[in-house]
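JOB MANIFEST
job_type = single_chain_structure
chain_count = 1
residues = 314
[input]
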Amino acid sequence: MNAEGRPIDGCVCDFNHASGRVTREFAQKWDDFECLVGVHDPAHTTFATTQEWAKWERGAEVADLASRSTLSSLMIKVYDALFTQGDGRQAVRELCTLSQTERGGYPRLMQAASRLIVKHDGANSWAAKEGGLKMFISKLLAASVMSLLLSLNAYGAKVASDCPVVNIENNVFDASVLEWNSRVSIENGADDYPIVLDFYRVTKEGCRKTEFARYPIEGSAPTVESIFFMPLHGRVNVFSIVAWDINNRGDGTYGRLYQVYAYFFDKNGVLVENKRVSEDNSMTGIDGYTHGTESKFRYGTASDVKRYWRSRLR
């Protein structure tokens, strides 16, 4: 779409090319092409602070959750360039739904977004120490601002109409001890991380799904042996016992490799790994043989893990 709002179709000649050759129109020549520069929070470019992003991720029941006031100065420039009308109360949602035809987002808004190049800079502190020089690392997203906006959903929350029904046989567990009417689910992931854990919570918009853990292939695909909940140090943790089959007969090592993980809500309401659990030497081991010597893993069940941590808390 050109500056007059008319569609651009096909190819145009570039005066720098030899006669008879054509190329697609060079974006930087468009009359309404613009480069936007602004500061942003290092945790998430879209929001002004990590706290605002965390509220959005968990669907917090707060006023102005999606308003323009929660955006970073960089994204405010993007929003204002795209949306010239309205009060900005649903700015985050408007940016997330650029491609939805029912709201007139495609093609006008997506094509308008493609004309914005977003450059976000961060100061390089070590350079400032060398003779007081100011040096910046710039990441130029030349293709489209859309790649930046899509980060709202990558590794983040997705909203569905209803949360899955609690059913242990389907790997959906009641997580109400973490948050009222919530769920934890074991689901299929990508090739390198075939198993993931998702957290479902009820919000005004529907059921919000957020991935909070993923387990890689370690010689074999992982399996989640158990999901359970237990309070540690004043916080309820969701535990997972993960196992991999191992078979290195030449080294005399084979059987099952176990690792116990735990996750709790941090101060921003995001489920994070409890390193105190996962890095405890007793929470990993082989049940089988190690270098020809029999090995027993003592904490392969929920009751065993609970007994261990209760003894540590005494």
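[summary]
The first strand starts at residue 34 and ends at 38.
Residues 11-25, 120-155 have pLDDT under 50 and may be disordered.
exit_status = 0
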